[in-house]
């Protein structure tokens, strides 16, 4: 969809949402903090296709606990998705955004200026922060304190009844369907309130810890753990969400946020990407409405912000509840995963005990 008017959009972050916005609007500049090499070789990824629901097993016995309901769930490779979304887009690599401010005087008064760590800057009509969960743009828009994320006490994802650790396995890539030795898998181990032992602060220690834990699992998780090569890098992530999320001042439509920058969420309901796609499409529609004169920039961005904030924070709280409930055998069957499967959260599903999770950790967590 081409932009009809003269709104020059500066996009911070060439992830899923940033690239999609760039595809949807013609007059943009897209800035990515990573160098082109680091960006292309980034090891993190999402995962492949399942055509039915997602089964959850008892990690200790291997018994099926529940089949999470889902309509045509699809796991995708983040790398392949990015390559697809990048077609025809000129990403400016090595441009780490560090500041955003309104231009207060001169020819460009009223516009917005984006400053980079390398000392350069760019001026445009609107800045959209698509720079992920730890968004620098969010800090600039709402201030560092208000932008701060809350770390779910979660470390690195079948569910083990003895300690509630989740061990997730999914297929990442299948270059040759007839030869499983060419397939790539994603393993994710996660737990709550259970800090890693000091020995797991380095690569070797973390691998030893992972291997020891995997031995407690039934097949096929145990073998999957054994097959991980010792030199594989195991990244350590805390589950993060924006507890302080609230309406941000978009400076009359000049600055806004998209996707993880607007609603970082824990990954256990797999809804981050869906919301990234929706946000990007809505942002493009907002810019088109403003460019065509159907709405003022301020009105278009206000409406965009309000919808993103409501939908995104609803999903953020439901995902957090999911994260909390599935890491405890006693609460597993009450988790959103079991009750509502993987469909997009509806407003009426966001109330009650889900909202109680806002910082309060009710339920003893
Ligand atoms: C372990 C894990 C598993 C997940 N599993 C799923 C799943 O199963 N299903 C699902 O839907 N979602 C999942 N997600 C979430 C999903 O990956 C994200 O929601 C989605 O990728 C967000 O897209 P984005 O464009 O907001 O951010 P990203 O794709 O993270 O892109 C942000 C980009 O901004 C760049 N950047 C950061 N700071 C700056 C700066 N200051 N200046 C310039 N550039 C900057 C980064 O380098 C990056 O390229 C998972 C996430 C994790 C961590």
Please tell me about this protein's structure.
With 365 residues, the chain is of the alpha/beta class. It has a domain at 9-43 and 78-151 and 241-327 and 348-357: FAD/NAD(P)-binding domain (3-Layer(bba) Sandwich), CATH 3.50.50. It is 30% helix and 17% strand. The protein has helices spanning 16-24, 36-41, 78-85, 136-142, 144-147, 203-214, 221-227, 272-291, 297-326, 336-340, and strands at 9-12, 28-31, 54-57, 64-68, 91-92, 97-102, 112-116, 121-124, 126-129, 150-152, 166-173, 184-190, 239-241, 255-257. The chain binds flavin-adenine dinucleotide. Residues 12-18, 31-34, 46, 95-97, 130-132, 136, 188, 237, 259-261, 267, 270-274, 276 line the site of flavin-adenine dinucleotide.
Gist of the model:
Keywords: FAD, Flavoprotein, Monooxygenase, Oxidoreductase. The chain has 365 residues and is an alpha/beta fold.
Task: Describe the secondary structure blueprint for this structure.
Blueprint: E1 9-12, H1 16-24, E2 28-31, H2 36-41, E3 54-57, E4 64-68, H3 78-85, E5 91-92, E6 97-102, E7 112-116, E8 121-124, E9 126-129, H4 136-142, H5 144-147, E10 150-152, E11 166-173, E12 184-190, H6 203-214, H7 221-227, E13 239-241, E14 255-257, H8 272-291, H9 297-326, H10 336-340
Parallel strand pairs: 1-2, 1-9, 2-5, 9-14
Antiparallel strand pairs: 3-4, 6-7, 7-8, 10-13, 11-12
Bound molecules: flavin-adenine dinucleotide.
Flavin-adenine dinucleotide (FAD) is lined by residues 12-18, 31-34, 46, 95-97, 130-132, 136, 188, 237, 259-261, 267, 270-274, 276.
Output the keywords.
alpha/beta, binds flavin-adenine dinucleotide, 10 helices, 365 residues, globular, disordered C terminus, 3-stranded antiparallel sheet
């Amino acid at each position: 969809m081409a932009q009809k008017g003269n709104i020059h959009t500066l996009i911070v972050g060439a992830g899923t949402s940033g690239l999609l916005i760039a595809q949807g609007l013609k007059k943009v500049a897209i800035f990515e903090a990573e160098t082109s090499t680091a960006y292309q070789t980034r090891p993190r990824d999402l995962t492949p296709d399942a055509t039915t629901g997602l089964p959850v097993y008892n990690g200790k016995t291997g018994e099926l606990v529940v089949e999470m309901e889902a309509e045509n769930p699809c796991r995708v490779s983040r790398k392949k998705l990015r390559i697809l979304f990048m077609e025809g887009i000129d990403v400016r690599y090595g441009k780490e955004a560090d500041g955003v401010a309104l231009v207060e005087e001169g020819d460009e008064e009223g516009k917005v200026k984006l400053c980079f760590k390398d000392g350069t800057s760019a001026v445009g009509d609107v800045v959209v922060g698509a720079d992920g969960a730890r968004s620098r743009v969010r800090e600039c828009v709402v201030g560092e304190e208000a932008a701060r994320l809350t770390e779910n006490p979660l470390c690195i994802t079948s569910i083990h009844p003895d300690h509630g650790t989740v061990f997730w396995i999914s297929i990442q890539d299948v270059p040759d369907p007839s030869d499983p030795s060419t397939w790539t898998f994603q393993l994710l181990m996660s737990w709550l309130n259970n800090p890693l032992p000091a020995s797991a602060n380095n690569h070797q220690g973390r691998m030893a810890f992972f291997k020891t834990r995997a031995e407690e699992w039934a097949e096929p998780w145990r073998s999957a753990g054994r097959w991980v090569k010792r030199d594989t890098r195991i990244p350590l992530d805390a589950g993060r969400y924006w507890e302080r999320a609230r309406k941000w001042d978009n400076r009359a439509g000049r600055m806004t946020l998209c996707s993880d920058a607007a609603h970082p969420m824990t990954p256990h309901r797999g809804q981050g990407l869906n919301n990234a796609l929706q946000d990007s499409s809505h942002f493009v529609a907002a810019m088109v409405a403003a460019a065509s004169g159907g709405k003022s920039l301020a009105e278009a961005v206000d409406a965009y912000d309000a919808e993103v904030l409501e939908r995104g924070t609803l999903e953020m709280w439901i995902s957090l509840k999911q994260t909390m409930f599935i890491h405890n055998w006693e609460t597993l069957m009450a988790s959103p995963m079991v009750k509502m499967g993987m469909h997009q959260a509806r407003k009426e599903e966001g109330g009650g005990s889900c909202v109680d999770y806002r910082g309060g950790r009710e339920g003893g967590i």
